Amino acid sequence: MNKNTLIRELQHNGLKLAFASQRHKCDKQVALTAVTQNAYALEFVDPKLRSNRDIVLAAVKNRGWALELANNDMKENREIVRTAVSQDGFALEWAAAFQNDKDIVLQAVIQDGMALQFASAHLCADEEVVLAAVRQNGMALFHADETAKSNHNIVLTAVANNGYALQYASTRLKRKRDIVIAAVGQCGYTVQHKDINIVNKLDP
Questions:
Q1: pLDDT band at 65 (very low <50, low <70, confident <90, very high)
Q2: 33, CA 20 to 30 Å: which among 90, 141, 162, 170?
Q3: Residue 96 gets which letter from DSSP?
Q4: Backbone conformation region of residue 203, classed left if phi is above 0, alpha if psi is from -120 to 50, else beta
Q5: Domain segments of the chain: what residues?
Q6: Residue 196 pLDDT more than 90?
């Protein structure tokens, strides 16, 4: 198959690169066409081209998780990593060099709060980072540092997003009236008259 015919086919199905000749897998234009159509095609690109900025950037713009398939030097490239985590927060898993980088981690948790699990211990205790994470997904509180789980603002934000996040709050905050009411309300329940005595026993 000649190059032009292959490119036309790859524009409709990038995964056809898997069946291309090695010569075509080494061709930048061919590879770029494939990963633009389907990020997973990066797996079939010649290994040397997995260090090519344009090709890897096109792949992670398509699907952030494609960062996993890139060469290590691309996983240490700020532009590539920032693009990847902005498309899919879980791409942070494959960017070890940036798991303690606040800007990158913020981008990741804004896209998917559960990406907090891949952040450094230091950033899992950072109020701005954890707030961004639980605002996107309250259950991200599970991955937060214990100090964050004792932060009233963080926990209130988490339960307002997902009431079931209350289980991950500190023991002290589980007894806070406004937090419990917010959690119950988010779960779709209302405090009934019969529950007033229980609520009144909670800490103000």
A1: very high
A2: 90
A3: G
A4: beta
A5: 1-98, 120-204
A6: no
